[in-house]
Known about the structure:
The protein contains five helices and seven strands. The protein is α/β, with parallel strands linked by helices. Strands 1, 2, 3, 4, 5, 6 and 7 form a seven-stranded mixed beta sheet that branches. The model is unreliable at 5-20 (pLDDT under 50).
Amino acid sequence: MIRRLIILTVLMLVSLGLGCSSSLSTRKRIKESLPAASRVAVLPFENLSGREKAAEKLTEYFVSTMSGYNRFEAVEFGQLYEHMRRFRIRSSSTLTNEQIDSLASGMGLDYIVTGATLEYEEFDNNFLGRVPQVSFNCKLIDCHSKKTIWVASSNGRGDKGEIAFGIGTVKSADKLARKMVEETVNELAGLFSKQ
């Protein structure tokens, strides 16, 4: 009995680490590290998922997660929003070089993160109940060269980390998305030099 309890406990601890497993793919287009203390802004993500407020949530998760890192300075979203209104920037997917220049000079930005929410849903599973599925892509744009220097794509399902009998599953799309964003931002932070 004690042995079963120990095995179950170990399985549960492993599932906590793997439960929100996602498939993250990144590509770095530069060799050198980016300077520490660079100013980085997250533009509102595009919503291609069909689920209302999905892009807003993902944008919020990126901004809040990035503010916890000291390798770069994450710009407050309220300041960015005001500049976007002033320069009439309505979409991050169609940014022009002039708009990037306007944001960079107006806010002292070095880099911009843009992206799109592709899936943000929960589907029914006969055994597990509701299972979330989230996918998004994002990129990092260098404001000086106007080039994309890093891209990432993340796909996750709440049942990917299931060990047995539903142990290790994530039941909420919001919780799954937050974990996926944390993993992505961790990869992004690795591009920057340590202070």
